[in-house]
Write a structure and sequence with these properties.
- Helices cover about 0% and strands about 65% of the residues.
- The protein has about 110 residues and is mainly β.
- Strands 1, 2, 3, 4, 5, 6 and 7 form a seven-stranded antiparallel beta sheet that branches.
- A hairpin with a 2-residue loop joins strand 4 (about 55-60) and strand 5 (about 65).
- The two termini are about 25 Å apart.
Length: about 110
């Protein structure tokens, strides 16, 4: 389960790579790499990996931004989680970004 694509914009190319490789990740996690050109911004919206799932961990560039086990962990203003934790929205500026997002079934 991999995807690697690029789209050209007036600001330059946007490159996106996505994987669910269970060799490196838990079965309910994704890894996403995004490269945005200079002077650009984006809003990345991550929907549940499967029906009735909620986000349990968000890692940015190797640092845990948020975990259901420690909700105050490094929470930043550029990340929004829906009240039911089923939708993650990240506001991004230009540059390279890497995320790992883990989901689990809601109880």
């Amino acid at each position: 389960n991999r995807m690697d694509c690029q789209v050209n914009t007036i600001y330059g190319p946007i490159h996106l790579a996505y994987t669910r490789d269970e060799t490196y990740l838990s079965p309910n996690a994704i890894q996403l790499r995004l490269n945005l050109p200079a002077n650009s911004r984006a809003q990345l919206v991550l929907e549940p990996l499967f029906p009735q799932a909620q986000c349990v961990r968000l890692i940015e560039n190797g640092q845990v931004l948020w975990s259901i086990d420690a909700p105050s962990t490094h929470r930043t203003s550029h990340v929004d989680l829906s009240p039911s934790l089923d939708l993650v929205t990240i506001r991004l500026g230009s540059g390279q970004h890497q995320y790992e997002v883990e989901w689990r079934a809601m109880h």
